[in-house]
Amino acid sequence: MEYDRIMQQGQRETGPDRGPRQFNMAAHCLAAAARVPDKVALTVLDAPDSVAERWRYRDLDKAIRAIAGALLARGVRPGDRVLLNLGNSSAFPLAFFGTVAVGSVAVPTSAQLSEPELAAITNRVNPALICSDREDVAAGAISVWSTDEIRRTAEGPPADFAATKRDDPAYLVFTSGTSAHPKGVLHAHRAADARRMMWRDWYGLTADDLVLHAGAFNWTYTLGAGLTDPWAAGASALIYIGKPGRDVWPTIMEAHGPSIFASVPGVYRQILKSNVKLEQATQRLRHGLSAGEALAPGLRARWRERTGTDIHEALGMSEVSTFISGSPGRPAPEGTTGYPQFGRRVAVLEDRTPTFAKSGTVGRLAVHRSDPGLMLGYWEEEEATKAAFAGDWFVTGDLVAEGPDGALRYAGRSDDVMTAQGYRVEPVEVEAVLATHPAVSDSAVCEVRVSEDLRLIVALVEGQAADLSSTSLDAHCRAHLADYKCPKAFVPVAALPRGANGKLQRRALPALVSAKDLAR
Fold it and tell me: What is the pTM of this model?
């Protein structure tokens, strides 16, 4: 991708306003309280047909500022960390935005963390306060707020939003993954303003929208696309906290009529297996959003066929959120993820160098350090922060290739790439072919070590067991892929390993393959 083309693209629109310097993320997200105080900002469902909570902008603003006031009264000061480890409840976003409102740093974590994992993060961030209902929180001298206390606090006297600056730290998230030492990604208040680049170039978001997000409150995808953006736009958010199920989401859509639905590909696959009549259930839905992992072209096509609506995919990461996407105004061409959002400065680099890859060549996706949505850095890891850059470019782990019209084709993660006969093989390419086999409902491809010097490409497949013949699957792959790209074994599985939010856990795949599977 050429540098001058990036510059021209970035200059078409300036993106989010980069001034004035004073900016508070929570105040930015609750500005609608002054314009439309009685509008519903958040509806929480505990069953598809049952409303557990309904928050109007006026009440949401008051509750969040009341929590900010209580934090100040507790001695929590700007820059202090507040660790959030709560279940899927509205107490989570109330505490998150209350922390940000007072100028402290919110540290959202998953409620599924083990005791050692939570203790390790606690030790690293040294929080002034922990919000949690867990009995295994080893707080010691650290104060702990439960969900009940957060709700009581939300009824207290409200404080003013802190006069933070755009570059002041606002929240700290720890990267998911298998590393024994996950990185802490520190973001500034300006990150919320930078998200406006997604409103047109991914969501098509307006103040009239009702956004249903399938994720839990504590997931950053939900905090961003499900709450931060709808609230900042003056729209309405809809979150379900009940038991999951393939019929749940279309039932909610039919009952409540969201205009935008956001989730991961795995949830869309579940919905397509639903017994609910999808065309009727989605009649008020304009489109869906997908992120978290690559969206198989076949899945998008099946969704369009069943619902008459499209899915718009986005590519991003914790360090910069989503910045490549298709949108209602500019859908991604088949086989691609989409385009750089206006206002972004994006490049495809040759490996980890500041050299631009030729158009059509797979390279490393990179974001310019001037991007307002880019992290401040890794928490207390100066060297790791420096190592993430090649010149002025933050280098991601994503591999992409630019097409003739500027659309980017996703080619997997650099650390997921497999090697066969000296060639690099991308799992997503093989998975896209398997997705077109009539008996396969889902698949994942990995590299399995057989001996010190031999690794084999293996496919794990979900589907109708009686029809998952290795002979049929092998013939299908060979009809669409070069020989070296074809899996050497096909392993039927009841379900692929996925996290709480439906994201594929690639690191867990090799352990599901036995020696017997390889000997078939």
Answer: 0.84
